[in-house]
Every structure is written in structure tokens, then in C-alpha cells.
Amino acid sequence: MVTKSWLYDAIIYIYALSLLFYFSDFVGPNRSAKRMGTGLLSFVWVMQTVYLVFNLASHDRATAFSMFETLFMLSWLLVTVSLVVNRFFRIELFVFVVNVLGFSMLALNFFSNPKVSPMLASWNIDDEVLFIHISLSIASYCAFVVAAVFSGMYLILHRQLKEKKFSKLMQRLPSLDKTDHYSFVAVVIGAPLLLLGMSLGVVWIALQGNMSLFFDPKVINSWFVLLAYIFYLVQRLVLKTPGYKLALWNLAAFFIMGLNFVFANFYSTFHQWS
């Protein structure tokens, strides 16, 4: 039976990358992103199928399936259904939501399986979950910083144009359309990364068995950060909010993210760095 940790890690990272492309296509139709997301998700399905075949071949028919095996098959079925829906019905939101659930289930299964050995001998399973959780979260924060910078540039340029102050600074800034677009793209990248990172955070808490951690100020505020950026996307894609107001909201969302670090250091019970 295939139990190599590197295979599990590969599936998790490729699965996360496929969801990033799917989300990008969902918020703004992009055929290249959709093809890439579908290709990566198909590869995840192939790796899951290989694991499933080995697992079923070595399974003792005299015993019932374990919870790990049952949930793994459920995750495999979710990926299968999402690929079928994507191929014949093209309901992007359904595909994305189903695969976020499948990703969380797969992560919980992988890292709660006692037969899986960590990639590094000095690590334990919780360390590996945290490593991936932190990596995805940091990447999302980086994207949000980029989005905030472009939103700030948008506001500066908007004010200069409104007051008809054609300075040299304006010549060095991209156009309003470009700064708005770049900020949007950064949020499109950051939001799913944060969602996936938070889903692994939920997995880690579940492995710890301490449900009170779900009510930690840092955890609660992280949901507010995610909702703030989702609302930004709703305003841009559904409500067609003007760029100036979008830039203001983007900076407000960034401010909420900044509060997250304050909560982490002074109020959180397990997210402190000093």
C-alpha cells in the first residue's frame, strides 16, 4: 500500500494549486486558468486512484473499511463528481466549493493516518500540517499586501486626476484601470490561499482535539479577514462597485488583516510569536 508522505504532500500541494486556478477562473472567466486547474485536478484524481487501487488490493476482506479508508473514498468520489460536473455542466462555483470540502477531508485523512510518517524524521504529523498551513497563510498575506499597495496607488492617482494635478508622480504610476486590475488579481490569488490555509488550521485543531481553539480570537478574526476579501470580490463582480470605493474597502480589509497580527501576539492562546 502506498503510504509515502511525499505522495501525500504532493497531492495536497497539487490539489491546493488546482483550486487556486479554479478560483481564478470562477471570479473572472479565464480559459487558460480553467484548463490548468482541470489538468491539475485530473492529476490529483489519478494519484488518488492509484492509492485507492493499492489500498483495496491489500485490504483484508474479512475486516470492514476503516474511517480513514471510507473518507478517502468519499474524497475521491467528490473529485470524480466535480470533474464530471466541470466537463458536462460547467458550474464553476459548485466545482470550487465541493473541492474545498474534498481538500479539507483529504488533508484531515492524510495527517490523521497513523501509518503516514512525516517527511522529516524530526517532525511529527502536527508539524507538517502547521508547515503547510503557515506556508499558505503567509503566501495569502503577501498577496494581500500587494493588493493594498495597488489600492493605495489607485487612491493617490484618483485624487490627482480629480484635482487635475498632473505631476511627475502620475507619469510613474500605472493607469487607474491597471492598478484596479492588479489589486483585483492579487486578491483573487490571496483569498483562496487563505481559505486553504484556514482549512488546514481547522484540520490541525481537530487533530489536537481541543475544540475551544476554534473560539480563539486569532481564529475568529481570521474568518473576518476572509469575509472582508470575499465581500470585496462580491462588490467588484456582482455589485459593480466603482473602483474608488473598491480601493477603500481593500485597504479596510488590509487593516482588518493587520489587526489579526495584534490579536495573534496579545490575545491568542496559541498564535503568539513573542
Task: Walk me through the structure.
With 274 residues, the protein is an all-alpha fold. It has two domains: 106 residues, Four Helix Bundle (Hemerythrin (Met), subunit A); 141 residues, Four Helix Bundle (Hemerythrin (Met), subunit A) (Up-down Bundle), CATH 1.20.120. The chain is built from nine helices and no strands. GO terms for molecular function: heme binding.
Top keywords for this entry?
single chain, 274 residues, mainly alpha, Four Helix Bundle (Hemerythrin (Met), subunit A), 9 helices, 78% helix
Supply the number of helical segments: 9
* CATH overall fold name of the largest domain: Four Helix Bundle (Hemerythrin (Met), subunit A)
Contiguous uncertain segments of 5+ residues: 116-125
Q: What structural class do the secondary elements suggest?
A: mainly alpha
Helix amount, in percent?
over 70%
Our estimate of the beta-strand percent is under 5%
Per CATH, the class of the largest domain reads Mainly Alpha
Order of helices and strands: HHHHHHHHH
By CATH, the architecture of the largest domain is named: Up-down Bundle
Summarize the biggest pleated sheet: none
Q: How many separate domains make up the residues?
A: 2
Number of strands: 0
Q: Globular, elongated, flat, extended or rod-shaped: what is the shape?
A: globular
Give a topology summary:
Blueprint lengths: L4 H23 L3 H28 L8 H22 L3 H21 L12 H38 L5 H5 L3 H33 L8 H21 L5 H24 L8
Structure at a glance:
With 274 residues, the chain is mostly helical. The protein is 78% helix and 0% strand. The longest helix is centred in the middle third of the chain and has 38 residues.
